[in-house]
Write a structure and sequence with these properties.
heterodimer; A: alpha/beta; Rossmann fold; 4-stranded antiparallel sheet; 10 helices; 10 strands; globular; B: mainly alpha; 2 domains; 6 strands; 66% helix
């Protein structure tokens, strides 16, 4: 597997969100949050349920428009970008409650991830010139390669996604995200529903992704063992606000964070 | 060019049928995209409802356009007259298609069918076809994985409408006229019934559904079974209740075989896999059956 080329100066912020706010009517889901994700780093986003973590993800990927603030991918302003365009620029994600295309096979799901990197249009699809045939063949081969890379066993490749086991569905979702050749990978609670052993394996896999594919990873995570083990930086949200930020060891002893998780003393 | 010398002498516009066919497909593709725009936010049944409503609107506009004057003594449409005296197709070597010999008509529509089938099968197994399935399965995941929503959806509308345009071009020349009265609501439902009975989402299902309902509608009911009620001493003919019969068929299908006569491959996979899972569960014994799923 060849590493993905990532242009731009090293250690620069791949993703920078500046003071973004999202209001749903009277509810302020995300309130004036800024976040920097340095290149080739693994950053965790934590916080109690309803803190606005997934809302933040949805803004970063273009599903929601921020009410205020700006989002930059490298030097590029993606604040008002469409989700598919942001994906083409190099942001791929997974979902908290796995969203695979159930009636498609694992391989087809991953091929969808490669959609933006393919060129066949209407007429290419109908007449299938050699260029389109080759593209289709290469995409399929690459999809199988990626599925093997994330640890799916061969017999599952051509099964419908809806029939795969829970763990395999998580794997396929990551493979689908990788297929779009991202520079930044957003993982929304990747270890949800996993046992400690599986979580540990995934933690190692995230490091492998960063080192082998030169990816930058931002993840939402509840499992503190994973957060402390994998991330270089941690950002903590509570009631839509950023209440702490820093290295895992610092955040762990932060009074505001402990208060948010365990309840504040009167 | 390539127009029968007989019709060329008549007033009006005369073009070769192939040109008409391509033109109809192109214009309808554009119209399809236009009608698709306001329905972009809708899904599933709601899209079907809005599409059927547009069918009604266009019919009404075609009839009432007669009282809309566009200047120069012209009206927007010719009302109930529609477009009449449509040329028969003409091909060198074959001549003009006549009304007495139906064979050339048959081969023409058969050729159009083959083209449409070819295009559909190719699209189904392509980058675009995959994107359509993905959008149907999960719109949020699809756009997050890089599928442009508006463009991809409008392309689906456009291709569907282009096929409709080709069918319409044939329809017009076959009946030598086109007017709103030929496109009643019942006709839309009849076509919808073909698709549902064949199997939603299945290309071969639509073919089989079309053949089945075409056979029942054009042969079985009027020619074979029409006198059946009279034999039981009933005072009506079967053709008078044909919509009732189609409705009954739809209900029967929904109860006995909701996936259609030839289900889509994906749906078939889903169904067989579910059965296999149940079998495996039963084989494991009742103790584990509950926990396995």
């Amino acid at each position: 597997m060849s590493p993905v080329e990532t242009p731009g100066p090293p250690a620069a912020a791949v993703l920078r969100a500046e003071r973004i706010t999202k209001k749903f009517g009277g509810l302020v889901a995300v309130n004036d949050v800024s976040i920097d994700v340095p290149q080739y780093s693994i950053v965790s986003l934590i916080g109690p349920n309803g803190a606005g973590k997934t809302t933040l993800f949805n803004m970063l990927t273009g599903l929601y428009r921020p009410t205020e603030g700006r989002i930059f991918l490298g030097e590029r302003d993606i604040t008002h970008g469409r989700p598919d365009v942001i994906n083409r620029y190099g942001v791929a994600r997974t979902f908290q409650n796995i969203r695979l295309f159930g009636a498609m096979t694992a391989v087809e799901n991953v091929m969808i991830g490669h959609h933006t990197r393919m060129r066949a249009g209407m007429f290419g699809s109908i007449f299938r010139p050699p260029r389109v045939r080759r593209e289709e063949r290469e995409t399929r081969a690459r999809a199988r390669e990626l599925l093997a890379y994330v640890g799916l066993r061969e017999p599952a490749f051509d099964q419908l996604a809806s029939q795969l086991s829970y763990g395999d569905q998580r794997r396929v979702e990551i493979a689908r995200a990788l297929a779009s050749q991202p520079i930044l990978l957003l993982l929304d609670e990747p270890t949800a529903g996993m046992n400690p052993h599986e979580s540990q394996a995934l933690t190692e896999f995230m490091r492998k992704l960063r080192d082998e594919l030169r990816l930058t990873i931002l993840l939402i995570e509840h499992d503190m063992k994973v957060v402390m083990g994998v991330s270089e930086r941690v950002t903590v949200l509570d009631y839509g606000k950023k209440i702490a930020e820093g290295e895992p060891a610092e955040v762990r002893v932060d009074a505001a964070v402990i208060g948010a998780y365990l309840g504040r003393q009167a | 060019m390539l127009v029968s010398p007989v019709t060329r002498a008549l007033p009006g516009i005369h073009l070769n049928f192939i040109l008409i066919l391509v033109g109809a497909a192109t214009i309808c593709a554009a119209a399809g995209a236009l009608i698709g725009l306001p329905t972009l936010r809708l899904r599933g049944d709601y899209i079907a409802i809005v599409t059927l409503a547009f069918g009604e609107i266009i019919g009404v506009v075609a009839v009432n356009g007669q009282s809309v004057h566009v200047g120069g003594g012209m009206t927007l449409t010719a009302g109930n007259l529609g477009i009449s005296a449509v040329d028969a197709p003409y091909f060198p070597g074959v001549g003009s298609f006549g009304l007495l010999n139906l064979r050339p008509w048959y081969w023409l529509i058969f050729a159009i069918l083959l083209v449409v089938l070819f295009v559909n099968l190719r699209l189904r197994d392509s980058r675009l076809g995959r994107a359509w399935v993905a959008l149907r399965e999960d719109e949020v995941a699809a756009v997050s994985m890089g599928i442009p929503l508006v463009k991809t959806k409008l392309l689906a509308y456009s291709t569907g409408a282009a096929f409709g345009g080709m069918a319409g071009a044939f329809f017009g020349t076959y009946y030598t006229e086109v007017n709103a009265g030929q496109f009643q609501f019942g006709f839309s439902i009849f076509i919808l019934a073909m698709v549902i009975i064949g199997g939603l989402g299945s290309i071969w299902g639509a073919v089989v559904g079309g053949l089945a309902l075409g056979y029942i509608n054009n042969y079985l009911i009027p020619d074979v079974l029409n006198g059946l009620p009279a034999r039981f001493g009933l005072n009506f003919q079967l053709t008078q209740v044909e919509f009732g019969i189609f409705g009954f068929l739809l209900v029967i299908m929904m109860v006995l075989r909701p996936q259609g006569l030839i289900p889509e491959r994906r749906r078939r996979l889903e169904l067989t896999a579910k059965i296999a899972a149940t079998d495996a569960q039963l084989a494991e014994g009742p103790d584990t059956a509950g926990g396995a799923t």
